[in-house]
């Protein structure tokens, strides 16, 4: 589909952007989702030019290993030179909503550890105000109902993502109808709810650069 081609375009642009960074000891952080998968498949072209990767999900780790790309435990590496991952929404400040693929906790951890976060997205992810995409929140299972009630107090409409357990053994609430005009404050408010593990707002730590796939080519936006 045309959207798939835009995803390939930004994955290729990300590979070109990181190539000058690749040295024998370089660790690359790798995200989760369909756009990240195109990047993983292209990263295999550079195998041997860098040390290895840290993955933000078991699914991405498996895909990398199928290409013969080394995958390290985060605790085994000193740092991550660059993290490449998709997003469900991005605003002009490169504040993101992530978590569509239920990998938000490990994604946020890998992003936190990375020197530079490169977000790759097709143009449909670009919004002026975050919140049209339901905000994923990872929750300790026993706290699900309590957290849902607290999210309602914040103006949201939480929906349990039935049948989904995260790599960390937790559950996801997708919070609808949130007009997130103050992403940093909302991220902190949700983090303060007891039982919340992670929420999908990447605002306190936005992406450093966005490669946005459009019909007019790949646009580069810096935060
Ligand atoms: O779950 C995630 O955070 C993914 O990165 C998601 O935000 C993007 O997935 P996509 O590339 O399949 O649209």
From TrEMBL:
Class of the enzyme per the UniProt entry, highest EC level: isomerase
Catalytic activity: aldehydo-D-ribose 5-phosphate = D-ribulose 5-phosphate
Binding-site positions, substrate: 32-35, 85-88, 98-101, 125
Pathway: Carbohydrate degradation; pentose phosphate pathway; D-ribose 5-phosphate from D-ribulose 5-phosphate (non-oxidative stage): step 1/1
Keyword annotations from UniProtKB, A to Z: Isomerase
GO MF, one annotated term: ribose-5-phosphate isomerase activity
Enzyme Commission number(s) of this protein: 5.3.1.6
Short name of any one Pfam family annotated for the protein: Rib_5-P_isom_A
Similarity annotation: Belongs to the ribose 5-phosphate isomerase family.
The protein, known as: Ribose-5-phosphate isomerase A
Organism: Microbulbifer celer
Taxonomic classification: Bacteria, Pseudomonadati, Pseudomonadota, Gammaproteobacteria, Cellvibrionales
């Amino acid at each position: 589909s045309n959207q798939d081609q835009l995803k390939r375009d930004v994955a290729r642009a990300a590979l070109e952007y990181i190539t000058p960074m690749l040295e024998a000891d370089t660790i690359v952080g790798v995200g989760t989702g369909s756009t990240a998968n195109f990047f993983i498949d292209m990263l295999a072209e550079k195998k041997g030019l860098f040390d290895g990767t840290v993955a933000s999900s078991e699914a991405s780790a498996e895909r990398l290993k199928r290409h013969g790309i080394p995958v390290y435990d985060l605790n085994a590496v000193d740092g991550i030179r660059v993290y490449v991952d998709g997003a469900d929404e991005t605003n002009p400040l490169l504040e993101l909503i992530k978590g569509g693929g239920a990998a938000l906790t490990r994604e946020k951890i890998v992003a936190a550890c990375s020197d530079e976060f490169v977000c790759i997205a097709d143009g449909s992810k670009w919004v002026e105000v975050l919140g049209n995409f339901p905000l994923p929140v990872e929750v300790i299972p026993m706290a699900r109902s309590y957290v849902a009630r607290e999210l309602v107090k914040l103006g949201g409409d939480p929906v349990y993502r039935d049948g989904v357990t995260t790599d960390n053994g937790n559950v996801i609430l997708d919070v609808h109808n949130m007009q997130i005009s103050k992403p940093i404050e909302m991220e902190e408010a949700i983090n303060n709810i007891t039982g919340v593990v992670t929420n999908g707002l990447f605002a306190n730590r936005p992406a450093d650069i966005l490669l946005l796939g459009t019909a007019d080519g790949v646009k580069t936006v810096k935060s």
